[in-house]
């Protein structure tokens, strides 16, 4: 038991690594995750709209993209983008792997977020689109102002879950060889663990990850509960209106 605590809960190493985890690791993890989430959300919405198009030349590229980036292991995508595409984009990014790490995470996130958006948009009753068109809206305007906002609202919990997954996937970018100032949480914990032969720094990094992900998990549950309450109230209101009309 003493050996277990000394290997995983050595407070000397935990306190030693915490300043770097909070000052450097947490900042870089959030930059990687938030930047990739924003770019991935924008690309995902484009993919969702393309995937719902009646035109094959729009629908098929979105389908192929989604199948490829959801089918490949995340680490393989990161290595291909970071080391393969990095050679082609060297004039643009130089030897800095940071933008390539964000790009790889963004492309992975876009595939999943696109499917989330597509499912949300398809869940909206077709009558919403038909009613909007009857009021004189164009198809694109009806989708943009009526259908898509409702679809996005329905998939908010899934989007937050995807961001949690993105935070955890950010650990994989360390394969690209970031500079000391660019290291994220996992890399900082791993470096000190390798230098000391003790796993306590990785445990400390895990605690910081939990500080990020656990509140987000509870946020997902809160949003989902609010949405279910809203749907219940709406359904009851519709029943009351139907009953009033019958009278």
From TrEMBL:
Keywords: Amino-acid transport, Cell membrane, Membrane, Transmembrane, Transmembrane helix, Transport. It comes from the Bacteria. PROSITE patterns: ABC_TM1. The keyword Membrane applies. It is found in: Cell membrane. Pfam families: BPD_transp_1 (PF00528). It is a multi-pass membrane protein. The chain crosses the membrane at residues 30-52, 64-86, 98-117, 158-179, 199-223. Residues 26-220 form the ABC transmembrane type-1 domain. Belongs to the binding-protein-dependent transport system permease family. HisMQ subfamily. NCBIfam families: HEQRo_perm_3TM. This is Amino acid ABC transporter permease.
